[in-house]
Amino acid sequence: MSRMEIITRADGPATAQLAPGVDVRIMATGSMGAVGVTTSLATFGTGSELPYHQHPFSEVIVVISGEALVMVEGRRYTLRPFDAVHIPAGTPHAVRNPSTECQAVLHSSFASETPTRESVSNSFAVVDCTETTHQTPESLIRFGEAPVYELAPKAYFRDLFARRFGSRGLCGGYGLFEPGASLPCHFHAYDESITIVTGEAVCQVAGKEYLLSGCGTACIPKGRRHRFLNHSDRPMAMIWVYAGDEPERTIVDACYCQSGAAADNQTSEV
Asked: How far is CA 157 from CA 151, 208, 240, in A?
């Protein structure tokens, strides 16, 4: 049997506490059926910090709300909503919410279906940075500086991480759908995780429909036909992540996505 989509609601309980004041909710991972990717939402309470650590695979952090200080080997960057930083495998880093009034919510992607974390001592001198360079292993894309392109009528996208920007094993970005906008039915050569960060989306997957909002996430397996639509009268936006280095898609007829399409629809919903 082919793998099915995974639908995860963000209002469920936290999966784990990574540090005092830092709770994580796993949205897609190998134990849920994903291949090559894990995505999660981390909520940082006021002043909370995830100490220095590293992973044996790439990670990308995108701020959803609030503000974050991301430290990479002592280089300290301030990230605001939808800024994205890619941290290569084996690179020590830490994250802190500098606010004393507001929590911060961060979306993390890992180029692995079985994420692990190794603690690292903080022996780095702090240097405040605004941008990354060719000499730094990490790469930072500021949301406001990312080029905007119209992927479909009234659907505006920004690529925030990909091989051409320095990331490995992951690519993704931000998509804004005006009322009435949709993407054509399509599939990918790798798994995709899509988190709805603004408004409400209709997600069609091989004949089934789901309503997603409030950081609800759909993980679509490689080769499974799907598309997203905005049937509301307000904008809808998403963070999308592919378990591959660069975006690609194969367009197919809309009938493969719409209700009534022939499919063995056994969905995993959390």
From this structure: 6, 25, 10
